[in-house]
Design goal:
Distance between the termini: 27 Å
Number of helices: 3
Helix content: 10-25%
Shape: globular
Largest sheet: 6 strands, antiparallel
Strand order of the largest sheet: 3-4-8-7-6-5
Radius of gyration: 17 Å
Strand content: 15-25%
Order of helices and strands: EHEHEEEEEEH
Structural class: alpha+beta
Length: 213
């Protein structure tokens, strides 16, 4: 099924040694991405559904949840611009896929209906997922956050980078993509909540909740 789930995949190459790759180029498992501890075992399987790959380019030194948490705390209580947590790439000389994980801060808890393309899930303040993206909203109260309330409303997003095509497939394949995006979004949200020291892990469950509400 994974081959039918690629969104706008194209070939790509690189410069380097005899194999055509840079000398310092590394390929790692999903659970080693983004500083480690950000991609759960469930999210690792979900990444394979989304990208078709089980190994990825090693993340850059600042391309991790730990650095993103520091930046978020410095920006709190409000930063409406979307910032990167981490970017995930399939290896060079394979079918190219880029996945972006982002954060931003909201003024209040989310309200109003979700867009029809999303399924609403019961995680945090709100979670919503589609066949090509997912978002988790959660409220964090932590001594690491500035201000008298030491609180912030955080939004973690997961979606392909570049100019991906709209996903296609039968109902089962689209449902698998929805679940996969939600699983990755949950994994990074929980990792961010832990890194920020949010009380009670910001109310996020230990495992993703995938049944629509």
């Amino acid at each position: 099924m994974a081959g039918s789930l690629f969104l706008g995949a194209t070939g790509c190459g690189g410069d380097g040694a005899d194999d055509g790759l840079p000398d310092d180029y590394k390929v790692v498992s999903a659970t080693q991405l983004c500083g480690g501890h950000a991609v759960s075992a469930e999210a690792s399987k979900a990444l394979k559904v989304i990208t078709g790959a089980s190994r990825f380019e090693a993340s850059g030194e600042r391309n991790n949840v730990q650095a993103a948490a520091v930046n978020l705390a410095e920006a709190a209580p409000l930063a409406t611009r979307t910032e990167d947590v981490c970017r995930i790439f399939t290896p060079l000389k394979t079918r190219h896929f880029e996945l972006g994980i982002t954060w931003k801060l909201a003024e209040d808890a989310p309200s109003g209906p979700s867009s029809p393309e999303f399924s609403r899930l019961k995680m945090g303040e709100r979670a919503e997922t589609a066949p090509n993206k997912a978002y988790v909203f959660f409220a964090c109260k932590s001594d690491k956050l500035p201000g008298p309330s030491n609180a912030a409303h955080v939004v973690i997003g997961v979606r392909p980078g570049g100019m991906p095509m709209e996903p296609d497939g039968d109902d089962g394949e689209l449902k698998a993509l929805k679940d996969a995006y939600a699983t990755v979004a949950h994994s990074f949200s929980l990792a961010m909540a832990k890194e920020l020291g949010c009380e009670n892990n910001a109310g996020l469950p230990a495992r993703p909740v995938l049944n629509p509400v």
